[in-house]
Amino acid sequence: MNNQTIPVITIDGPSGAGKGTIAQMLALDLKWNILDSGALYRTLAYFMLQQNIKLKDFEENMLFIKSNFKVKFDPGTIGEPVKVIFNNDDITKKVRTEDIAKKTSDLATDPLIREFIRPCQRDFMVQPGLVADGRDMGTVIFNDAKLKIFLTASIEERAKRRQSQLKRQGSEVNMRLLLQELEERDKKDTEREHSPLIPAEDSVVIDTSNLNPEGVVKEIKTYL
Ligand code: C5P
């Protein structure tokens, strides 16, 4: 079947705006596939670390990386992060650390990396539909999407959410440090030359600072 007929909802926005939770709830509700593109970048960073491949050596190792880069997502259950399955291993916890996030953010500024990841992302577009979560889902990767959502929230609220998410996963992180890391990541994501984080012109922008996830999902479903 032609890809054009597969419906896609893109959910973009900065870290901690609620993309993961909302994408997960929508995917479970609609019984659609899910693409956590941040986790895809994180998995690539994790794999390169594991294989000791530096960014400058990416091109010469591209064939090896390509043939070993088999990632799947399972929306899992609400309240738990979306599961990341890499070469049949559940690496969810390993890639959702602040250390990997920082390395990923550096890696994601590289045009070669973005070009490599692009077809991997398009491959997730299968029936009955796809909920794609990231930074450039609506602007670049699925600019033909049926519905584009851009989620935002104040930086304080996003840091609070990140802190409780990390706490649930068993790590304690200092609030000041989290705020600083979020600021750095926002700056890198919005100011980078390739695929910067900006709302698509035809996106619906929702500020989630004072909304609960159910309220956000309800609002998104009114646009479907
Ligand atoms: O969303 P998450 O925090 O897992 O993303 C990790 C990092 O991956 C982000 O800080 C961003 O730099 C990068 N990313 C990206 N483009 C995407 C998704 C994530 O550059 N579509």
Describe the secondary-structure layout.
Blueprint: E1 8-12, H1 19-30, E2 33-36, H2 37-50, H3 62-68, E3 71-74, E4 83-86, E5 89-90, H4 92-95, H5 98-107, H6 111-122, E6 130-134, H7 137-141, E7 147-152, H8 155-168, H9 175-191, E8 204-207, H10 213-223
Parallel strand pairs: 1-6, 1-7, 2-6, 7-8
Antiparallel strand pairs: 3-4, 4-5
Helix pairs in contact: 1-10, 2-5, 8-9
Describe the 3D structure.
By secondary structure, this protein is α/β, with parallel strands linked by helices. Helix content is 47%, strand content 15%. The protein contains ten helices and eight strands. It has helices at 19-30, 37-50, 62-68, 92-95, 98-107, 111-122, 137-141, 155-168, 175-191, 213-223, and strands at 8-12, 33-36, 71-74, 83-86, 89-90, 130-134, 147-152, 204-207. The strands form two sheets. Strands 2-6-1-7-8 form a five-stranded parallel β-sheet. Strands 3-4-5 form a three-stranded antiparallel β-sheet. Helix 1 (19-30) crosses helix 10 (213-223). The longest helix has 17 residues, at 175-191. The radius of gyration is 16 Å and the shape is globular. The two termini are 22 Å apart. The model has no long low-confidence stretch (mean pLDDT 93). Cytidine-5'-monophosphate binds at residues 15, 37-39, 41-42, 101, 104-105, 108, 134-136, 185, 189. Cytidine-5'-monophosphate (C5P) is lined by residues 15, 37-39, 41-42, 101, 104-105, 108, 134-136, 185, 189.
Main attributes?
224 residues, alpha/beta, five-stranded parallel beta sheet, three-stranded antiparallel beta sheet, 10 helices, 8 strands, 15% strand, globular, binds cytidine-5'-monophosphate
